[in-house]
Amino acid sequence: MSIPPDRRPDPEELLRKVQAGERRERRGRLKVFLGYASRVGKSFRMFDEGRRRKMRGQDVVVGAVQAAVEPDIQEILSRFEIIPPIVERYAGRTYEVMDLSALFRRHPSVCLIDGLAYDNPPGSRNPHRWQDVDELLDRGIAVITAVNLQHIAEKQDEVERITGKRAANSVPEAFLAGADEIEVVDAPPDALMGRPGDSSITDARRLAELREMALLLAADVVEEQLQDYLESHGVAARWGAQERILVCLTPRSSARPMLESGYRNALRFHGALLAAYVEQASLGEADRKSLESNLELARELGAEVHCLHGDDFVTAILEFALEQRVTQLFLGHTGRDRRLWRLGRDPIERLIDAAESFDVRLFPHREGA
Amino acid sequence: MSRGRLKVYLGYAAGVGKTYRMLEEAQELRRQGVDIVIGYFEPHGRRETIAKTEGLDVIPRRTIAYGGSTFEEMDTAAILRRKPQVAIVDEFAHTNVPGSERVKRWEDVHVLLDAGIDVLTTMNIQHLESLNDQVHHITGIRVRETIPDWVVDEADELVFVDLTPRALRNRLERGVVYAPEKAQRAMDNFFTESNLSALREMAMRHTAHEVEEKLTVVPGAGVDATGAPLNAEPPPRHERILVCLTGRPSSAILIRRGKRVADYLHADCLAIHVSGGHAAFGDDREAVERHMRFARNLRIETHLVEAHDVPMAITDFARERGVTQIFMGRSERQPWYKPFRETVVQRIVRRARDMQVTIVAERRR
Fold it and tell me: In B118-170, which ranges are E strands?
């Protein structure tokens, strides 16, 4: 059974947030350009932003460049001061490690780093370049960098399923999500296919799948940051840009059609699937069992299951739905005869009446089904 | 002659750089020797963008007199006469001044496409019809210039033009997007950090959705009469959504929401209005006709049924047509003197035991 979410702000949590906020203020800002494949032009966009910032008088240097550089980037690069990397050999391979001490000494206001996913050789100060970036940020240096989808650790299985390949170096998704800004570099796949160079992915379909993944990853990061922003500004977010489906479970509801439909809707909308039930004190053995199997099915379908407390079913569901920014609420009904609507204050009707920000979808179910 | 290809640059607000990106591509095409012209371009006084038009052939706008003033619109006929390979047409969602040949710019674009001319155009996510209520709910702004979703779905390519809200607000502060006074007002109202983030997320999700939709279509297979791909994967169980229209203003919300859900689920979408019930309950002829027209514009098949018993007529129709889900608005409260009388929603729910019933929220602010 899942742990009921606690609605009161936890003092520890608040303190952590304040500290994180203070740390963030001293830290340099991190901006990441995210591409879905090589050659979508994210390096170009990154250096172009550096160029524009330099024109506006900011102190910009280049901390790392990719091994193979295209002519248009070569041209832009010539306008920057480049802090040369330390070249190291290890096990027959050549590594270009960012010269952190030189960067600390030089202390620019902005450092451009092409290729965020890069592993340093064993014995380096940090195993991964993203950790080097973290140190620059900690010293108050802003970093603009670029990364491709196939290097995001949590997405690598899915990328491998699509392309049959797995990139050796990776960056944790949390590092991306913690960036102050993330910008998507989007382009239609056919624009990439005609280009020379990396011909590893020439299949339009595969590219389209990667493109969709990158857009959704960015949307998820934006959603998370937006909710953080609203929370930190004391705004009760009662809306979002994402579809969020809540299936209300009771011991006697025929949960399967609701959950399966919820699953399919969430999948098609790339939304979230939640399932909730309101704890009831006195449940018979049969009801308890039936509820357990409904919850099991919900978990199998990937729903986030919540147990709610409260004397009143409608109030508990309503509060939870608002807090979770639900856009569609799924509810079972027996509705055999009008006695169920007796006195006009039946729970379903009360929910419909109060549902200002979400749709209520009623599923018929047979008694005992 | 084959129809021209349509490419849409999608942004989430003014100033993110849609037109700039489009013109960059135009310059690239010109370098490759493609015959490309500017059919319509809105400079907004932005220097960097204007610089990108250099060397591109411009088709002069035509002047239209209306209400004592003169307005400039795209000269579609002149572009047709010039017949370039590619035309740049800024601001896809624009509504033409009354007296123009066509109401909407996207209709002019269709004329160009029909003539075999490729078109590059720009729009923002908030101009998408099906998101109108969500955008209003989030930003408090009711966007008037909208484009039906199918028009955008039909684009051969959709490119998301991204810029972070912070960078956009910096641009506003530097006076790159609007004049200083207008910029400050914009930042206090529409261009708040949270509005921009939400719109941006919507644009990302919509682009992802369009990319996914195209994945289910084999290239070159074409579309059927309703614009749906002929060989799209069939849904596991064929869903059919019925939207119940009245004359009440909330019907517009119902239509947009029903169509949006239907599109995402690859379901059919029908709409019905039952007249002859109670004139007092939103049976305003003119409003009903307006809603029916609106539904048809979104490519929803509409039906008008005469019957006394509204819930019965709706459920009978739904059953006959194999509807799986009925979309309706909340019923009006019952008057105090008959509190035990069932509402329309209650009666439909009770009668439609083989269907799901969705009561759509009005998403007021």
Answer: 118-124, 157-160
Q: Looking at residue A84, what DSSP letter applies? A: P
Contact indicator for B9, B122 with CB cutoff of 8 Å: yes
Please give the C-alpha separations between residue A238 and each of A28, A103, A168, A229, A318, in angstroms, as whole numbers.
32, 44, 41, 13, 12
Q: Look up the ipTM and state it.
A: 0.83
Say if CB A150 and CB A156 are below 8 A apart. Answer: yes
| Whole-structure pTM value | 0.85
Contacts of B162 in chain A (CB under 8 A): 183-186, 218
Q: How far is CA A203 from each of CA A37, A210, A218, rounded to the nearest angstrom?
A: 12, 11, 23
Chain A residues closer than 8 Å to B359 by CB: 352, 355, 359-362
Nearest residue in A to B21, CA atom: A187
- Summarised one tens digit per residue, pLDDT across range B212-237 is 988 875 444 444 444 444 444 444 55
Q: Which residue on chain A is closest to B208 by alpha carbon?
A: A212
Residue type, A12: E
Dump pLDDT digits (tens) for A272-302.
999 999 888 777 888 888 889 999 999 999 9
Strand partners, B86: B36, B118
Choose among B89, B8, B15, B75: nearest CA to B45: B15
Q: Do B205 and A181 touch (CB under 8 A)?
A: no
Q: How far is A132 from chain B (nearest CA, A)?
A: 24
CA geometry: angle at A311 spanning A310 and A313, to 5°? 80
Q: Do B197 and A229 touch (CB under 8 A)?
A: yes
Contact B355 A364 (CB under 8 A): yes
- By the 10 Å C-beta count (0-12 exposed, 13-18 middle, 19+ buried), B98 is classed as exposed
SS3 letters for A118-185?
Answer: CECCCCCCCCEHHHHHHHHHHCCCEEEEEEEHHHEHHHHHHHHHHHCCCCCCCECHHHHHCCCEEEEE
The residue written with tokens 């029908």 in the block is B270
In our burial notation (b when 16+ CB lie closer than 10 A, e otherwise), range B151-180 reads bbbebbbbbbbbbbbebbbebbeeebbbee
- Ranges of beta strands (E only) in chain B are 6-11, 36-40, 57-58, 62-66, 69-73, 86-89, 118-124, 157-160, 240-244, 268-275, 301-306, 325-328, 356-359
